[in-house]
Amino acid sequence: MLPDDLYTAAAVRRFEREAIAAGIPGYTLMQRAGTVALDALRQLWPAAKSIAVVTGPGNNGGDGLVVARLARQQGFAVVILQVGTADLQGEALQALQDLLRTGQEVRPFDAALLAGQHVIVDALLGIGVRAPLRPEWLAAIEAMNACDCPILSLDLPSGLDPDTGRALPAVSATATQSFLALKQGLFLAEGPAHAGQVLFDDLGVQASKDAEPTLRTMNDRCLAAALAPRLRESHKGLFGRVLIIGGGTGMPGAVRLAAESALRSGAGLVTVASRPEHLAAVVTMRPELMFHAVADADDIDQPLSQADVIAIGPGLGRSEWARELLERVFALRTSGQQLVVDADALNLIAAGAGRQQCEDWILTPHPGEAGRLLGCDAQSVQQDRVSALASLCQHRGGTIVLKGAGTLVGRLGRVPLLCQQGNPGMAAPGMGDVLTGALAGILAQRAEPFAAAAAGVYAHAVAGDRCMRGGLRGMLALELAQELRAVLAPIP
Asked: What is the pLDDT of residues 186-226, one digit of tens each?
């Protein structure tokens, strides 16, 4: 099982310096890395008899040279391909000298020599990658990716940014053996697609006790942290009253999905406030829901006064009716009422409506909405999602759920959380509405906002993975909402 804590490249370099200062020689760490990597290679591909090790100019190349020396000693046919002219120093130079004493030849990189190898060991760049890539590095990466044999990357697929997960481009590894501490880029953006199976070994080095991770991955503990066991004498009034506001003209589906999700997440009472003509669409086949017709903004006053949690945005639209509803919510909401803001409510806020900053709301933007809230575009958000999350927390306040592949949950003063669960089948209409309902439903059960956001995001993603059993294509948001009950079942 992989550790939960993820770090930047700078932090990992600091861990290495501290280990050396504490008395572990750098070359000892390099030899440990080579040993671990070769053990992983043998376990993953036990029939392999030949390897090509592609090395670069730094310590990642030194790790590869250790792998090559040990593999030769164990009977592998080894080809070592050096990319560019490298003036090796320090531990990497020592690794080269030990290798050359065995009689092993180091050749200039030639893509033709990769043909017929059982495994390629990518020891080109590791966390030392810098954009733009040199032409010779690009050529080597393209040549490795063009081969039909498996690739084991050492520490990080070459060309992958260790902090953002951007491919510059990058090696598409079958597996990545990471060392010392997990780099967050392996799990962000394009990282999972390039890293393959991630393996980890700390090389006997414990991260500094005062080193706070940059990210932490979610797991089942997120559910237990947000949801308390239910006592035998419980009644629905203990589990909160949720009000879902939205559903502009011709858009009843979004509030229906959010409301069903809130019920499936365990909320005690759920009311939908939407246009009068949406009554039948919302309550048909789900009589457990309550409905309040809102023709004008002041029609929201009565249900708003009774709610513990307000979720506004699903299907809301950007009409004058929608803007007035949003303004009414902010004008009348009391300090004890929790708030989840999604979809067009976010776009209205970005356009200047409602509150611009709040310390007790949960905002759930996708990259496009996040860009509008930050005054940039979606591409800028995606290039560095961790930085975008931090900016949203700083400028908008509260708890931020930055949706997308690898959803992030952040709040000032808290280590951000990363969701590794979920799948491409969830790229379908209504999935965000189901997430909003799950957040509101869990929040209504007296969960603290950050914990509720983590539990809702995690439960939503795991429910999506349960739905994936029926295939990626054609997954429906309502099916996912109905899976939430099963995901939450371990919490009695």
From this structure: 999 999 999 999 999 999 998 765 688 999 999 999 999 99
The 241-245 sheet, strands edge to edge: 5-6, 215-217, 417-418, 408-410, 399-402, 361-363, 338-341, 309-312, 241-245, 269-274, 290-293
Class of domain 221-487: alpha beta
Report yes or no: 68 and 95 within 8 Å, Cβ to Cβ. Answer: no
Residue 309: strand pairing partners:
242, 338
**430-485, pLDDT tens digit by residue?**
999 999 999 999 999 999 999 999 999 999 999 999 999 989 999 999 999 999 99
Domain boundaries, the chain: 5-210, 221-487
Peptide bond between residue 132 and the one before it cis (omega within 30 degrees of 0): yes
Listed in sequence order, the residues at least 6 apart from 244 whose beta carbon sits closer than 8 Å to its beta carbon are 255, 258, 259, 262, 270, 271, 272, 273, 311, 312, 314, 436, 437, 440
The backbone region for 412, taken as left when phi is positive above 0, alpha when psi lies in -120 to 50, beta otherwise, is beta
Fold of 5-210: Rossmann fold (3.40.50)
Phi and psi at residue 17, to the nearest 5°: -65, -40
